[in-house]
Recover the amino acids of this structure.
């Protein structure tokens, strides 16, 4: 429980409560094994598939498909949040969300988006830059049907990103929906909910190395549909 004293310390920025670790001295030695141009697959999606397979099987990651999605509004003001990657193939990277949420409102004004997979236990990150397009209603519906009943109701109950007055308001909305659509009954796909497919324009594969001499290889889309690979300084 946070008591009043705690909060006061945090607000006044007094040391002690707020700085239990010496962050400046926290660092890890990264692996020797690197990433070379010769190691790379022909396309960033094929390379992503290789790394994702490793992240999912040997990465010791709680949710390897968790990614940070960054958007910016029409004035260029950025915001980030974690979402789950639900599918990927040569057409792009797909996640699902509420179309009234802040991220979706940003994307309606400015479709440029960045996805970041923070695979820290493997000293890896993948950064996708691209353009987001809404998935078709059929694709959204097909995915919605695979969600657990409770998550389907949750998608209806939530006015994601809107300010609400109390937790009770949310629980009451859910209870009402649960009564209307008991377990086993088909829940319609909410019209305000669906997917975004991020079509990549550039994908960077970052492998941590010793002495901060990391490998950074970036695929950049070419006019003819192919990919150019660039090495970036760490
Ligand atoms: C591990 C994790 C997974 C999440 N997955 C999703 C998701 O797939 N879709 C989603 O809309 N929100 C997801 N969220 C919640 C988002 O981080 C965020 O709170 C929500 O989408 C509202 O963001 P916005 O107000 O910036 O639009 C997830 C959060 C966490 C921590």
């Amino acid at each position: 429980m946070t008591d009043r004293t705690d909060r006061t310390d945090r607000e006044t920025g007094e040391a002690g409560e707020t700085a239990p670790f010496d962050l400046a001295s926290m660092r890890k030695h990264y692996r020797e094994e690197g990433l070379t141009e010769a190691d790379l697959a022909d396309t960033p999606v094929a390379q992503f598939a290789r790394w994702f397979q490793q992240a999912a099987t040997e990465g010791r990651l709680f949710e390897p498909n968790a990614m940070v999605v960054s958007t910016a509004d029409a004035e260029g003001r950025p915001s980030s949040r974690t979402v789950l990657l639900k599918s990927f193939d040569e057409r792009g990277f797909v996640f699902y969300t509420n179309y009234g949420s802040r991220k979706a409102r940003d994307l309606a004004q400015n479709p440029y988006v960045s996805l970041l997979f923070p695979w820290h236990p493997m000293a890896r990150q993948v950064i996708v830059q691209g353009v987001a397009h809404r998935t078709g209603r059929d694709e959204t519906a097909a995915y919605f049907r695979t969600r657990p009943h409770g998550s389907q109701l949750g998608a209806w109950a939530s006015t994601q990103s809107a300010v609400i007055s109390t937790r009770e308001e949310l629980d009451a909305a859910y209870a009402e929906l649960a009564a209307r659509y008991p377990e086993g009954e088909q829940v319609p796909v909410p019209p305000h909910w669906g997917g975004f497919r991020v079509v990549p324009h550039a994908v960077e594969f970052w492998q941590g190395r010793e002495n901060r001499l990391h490998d950074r290889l970036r695929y950049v889309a070419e006019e003819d549909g192919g990919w150019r690979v660039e090495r970036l300084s760490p």
